[in-house]
Amino acid sequence: MRNSTIFPNSASLLLLLLLCISAPHARAQNQTPANVASVGWTDPATGLTWTKQDNGTDVNWNQAVAYCSNLRLGGYIDWRLPTIDELQNIYDVSADVPGQWPDGEEVTWHVKCNLKLSGTQWSSSQGNAGEAWLFVFKKGGRGAVVISYSTYTRALCVRR
Predict the structure, then answer these.
(1) Using CA atoms, how far apart are residues 35 and 55, in angstroms rounded to an integer?
(2) Is residue 16 pLDDT above 60, yes or no?
């Protein structure tokens, strides 16, 4: 008889534990459009949501990947570093967003929706061994550099 009274309590405790573990993930995936607007911009052409700004400091490629994958913003946990093509898709030569290069030089970023940039953006796309692709919204160009490079390189995160 003692075992039958312990089992329901253990089952209840296990159920409660499972609910607590899964609840943050469920909340993160079920956000309203109003919450999306507070953390970034959703591109209507692709359905991708971008953070309003990049990380704001020099990072190498590994740090950029880690920054986005560890980002917890607006209740979302599935941020990632975008591909080079995804970055190029938000380049808009007709958009003139004032900003500063990390050395203080005034620049114009050509990026959709006035996203706040502060340098060249890393992508998740890798090139040759030990290289990854960067996108420059100042000029609209892309280039591959060694993943340890960290001068004026930033992480702009995205999620679907």
Answers:
(1) 20
(2) no
Q: Which of 73, 78, 79, 65 is nearest to 125 (CA)?
A: 65
pTM > 0.90: no
Q: Which amino acid is at 37?
A: A
Which is higher by pLDDT, 9 or 15? 9
DSSP category for residue 128: S
112 within 8 A of 43, measured Cβ to Cβ: yes
| Main-chain phi, psi angles of 3, to 5 degrees | -65, -35
pLDDT digits (tens, 9 = 90+) for 133-146: 999 999 999 999 99
Quickly tell me which residue has 């253990």 as its tokens.
10
Cα 97 from chain centre: 20
User: What are the domain boundaries of the chain?
Assistant: 1-30, 34-159
Q: Which fold would CATH assign to domain 34-159?
A: Mannose-Binding Protein A; Chain A (3.10.100)
Q: Tokens 């290069």 sit at which residue? A: 101
**Whole-angstrom distance between the N-terminal and C-terminal Cα of the chain?**
52
